[in-house]
Amino acid sequence: MIPKPILLPKERWPQELLEIPEPPKQLWITGTLPDEKYIRLTVIGSRKYTNYGKDACEKLIAGLRGYPITIISGLALGIDAIAHRAALSAGLPCIAVPGSGLDEKVLYPATNISLARQILESGGCLLSEYDPGFRATIWSFPRRNRIEAGLSKAVLIIEAEEKSGTLITARLATDYNRDVLAVPGSIFSDNSRGTHMLIRLGATPIRNSEDILEALGFDISKKKEERPIDQIPKDCSPEELTILKLLNEPLARDELIRRAGFPISQTNGLLSIMEIKGLIKESLGEIRKS
Asked: In 232-283, which ranges are continuous DSSP H helix?
């Protein structure tokens, strides 16, 4: 069960939220507000995500492991839920800001109630300006977006169509003087039109986790192998390391086998073992690092 929400006293509100033009009049919470010393990053994107968007979201957040960062999102279907799960997997605390009240009977979407419980069990919280029994409406989501933007130091857009609620949050972030970060995507994908438009308007393009860390103000001048990101597992065989080095970009299986230079049967067996170990994944005819 999700604990009964309580009103959060204003003296405990994150200061950044009090500074936005239209702060909420009240703030309900269930769970524990993550440490104020952690930098808050809002991660949002399309509900109708692509495999590329999912992989990008998971990979980027995994690269933040070990840093004092709190991930904020809206508990919605799609990239929001992927971001929350990726953060939990990386050991990062979460703040979920749904477009409904926090009572379990109305929490939206109902399909993500188990995810909400995981967020709470991992030391995160759910926040809402709406009364606990408030059911989500069309207008409650755009209103909710200003809280996501207001809480954060930066907003990361994974995927967005040209007209979407995600872009409302990006616009609010700009109005609140927050950094807007956007992941470039395929020129053939509708889900990339919004992010490409943001980049044209001045958003910071994000190529890897290091770009996010720099945008959040972390010093990443140390050698890459000394940082807790993008680490290569220590138990990899020389052949597995060869495959991982080739996968700086997704490759079709036949092309990967050609570049590896190993016998076909050996490479296919190696790829199967690496997928079981969680080192790689195959989707839409391409193999990529996990």
From this structure: 238-246, 253-260, 264-276
Task: Tell me which architecture the domain covering 238-289 has in CATH.
Answer: Orthogonal Bundle (1.10)
Is residue 57 predicted with pLDDT exceeding 90?
yes
Strand runs labelled E in 111-239: 125-128, 154-157, 179-182, 204-205
With beta carbons less than 8 A apart as the criterion, state whether 63 and 190 touch. no
Strands (E), the chain: 6-7, 28-31, 39-44, 69-73, 94-96, 125-128, 154-157, 179-182, 204-205, 251-252, 280-283, 286-289
Taking CA atoms, 72 is separated from 34, 38, 100, 135, 145, in Å, by: 11, 12, 16, 21, 11
List, in sequence order, every beta strand (DSSP E) within 56-203. 69-73, 94-96, 125-128, 154-157, 179-182
pLDDT score of 231: 52
Farthest-apart Cα atoms in the chain, separation: 66
| Domain spans in the chain, listed from the N-terminal domain onward | 15-215, 238-289
Q: What angle do CA 237, 242, 246 make, to 5 degrees?
A: 145
Give yes or no for residue 276 having a pLDDT over 80.
no
Residue 82 and residue 71: Cα distance in Å, rounded?
11
Domain 15-215 has CATH 3.40.1700.10: no
**What tokens does 149 get?**
């933007």
182-226 pLDDT, tens digit each:
999 888 899 999 999 999 999 999 999 999 999 999 987 753 444
> Can you give the pLDDT at residue 228?
43
How far apart (Å, rounded) are the C-alpha atoms in residues 261 and 95? 47
